[in-house]
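input
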Amino acid sequence: MTQLNEPHLPADPSGDSAWETALAQLDEAAELMGLAPGVHEILRAPKRSLSVSVPFRLDDGSTRVCQGYRVHHNVTRGPAKGGLRYHSSVDLDEVKALAMWMTWKCAVAQIPFGGAKGGVAVDPKALSRSELERMTRRYASEILPFIGPERDIPAPDMNTDEDIMSWIMDTYSMNHGYSVPGVVTGKPVSIGGSRGRAGATSRGVMYTIFSTLKSLGIGIEEVSVAIQGYGKVGGHAAQLLHDAGCRVVAVSDVDGGLYRDRGLDPEAINRHKKLGGSVSGCPGAEPVTNAELLEIDCDVLVPAAVEGVISVKNADKVKARVVCEAANGPITFEGDKILSERGVFVVPDILANSGGVTVSYFEWVQDIQAYFWSEEDVNERLRQIMERAFVEVYQMAEDKGLTMRQAAHWIGVGRVAEAHLTRGLFP
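output
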């Protein structure tokens, strides 16, 4: 018997969860662009979601079981691509949202991938290195049917790095009987990684900020920057922006932050963090909390930590002229509306932090060809793609009277929708 699909329930735009935010953004884009209802329905739901049990042995001989996930949101434009995060808060809804954002991100950057994401609900800091390796290899074994260089290519994300990618590549390769470097990106250069990959997301954020300042008529040397999240992305971005002539006035990590109106020295902060494990307490600067950093009077605010840090609770207190989303989903749907009404120029995550997946694409291409590029080539190709994507989104926003986020989603969703319509619906 034929059953009719029930109309979907609209996302709750007031919800602060990453999944509600992602759905609300898609629904808004679909309405603005007049997206065909059938395509809209397809894009609202992940293509496939995998939830796995991850048992592994602890150093004391006991067994622990964690929950792991891998989601393919869409693979119409190419293999699934997306990071892998280890964090105690990871759940299926978060991974679904991150996978959806990856779909749009790849489309905006014109990278021939679809969106994926994965994660394990675990605090990696509570594990020894050997426990972390055993857990990673078990997780990789559980998701083996999902991944592959022509199917789904994981990459580093929150609390994961090139070592973890090495273990996943080795686990996959051992199961196939030969080395398959293209199964992951963000791995060491010695086993097929790309030069320039480690700092690619940060460098892409820098290129996007420079394009934004140029479009707003602001000189680089005149700019003050505050960065929430001093990890792989935020810490490297601070150094790049400082070296380029920007005044980095505030940074923070999970334990707290620093503020100095005359500007901070990232090298001194890096030395302090290496000794103490945090930027907090670095001499020569005032202490600030993560919440206070978001409200600092600066030209550019870079949220580079976690989702949902700017919402209806604090969006009216943000003083920055520009907010550049280095993290995924740091602004909720309603928080974004408040910033827009106040005239804050928001550079959305699916544009601003696409440098990582862009250079991951370069790495994948190099692995397939077994021919590798210089770091200068990688950085120059990245710059061209980031600047082109910014111009396309900015011009769309100007031409149609949209926010940058609306324009980016219009372009990203539109390209995926066009691919769906071109391929048709099987069977």
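quick obs: The CA atoms of residues 109 and 388 lie 8 Å apart.
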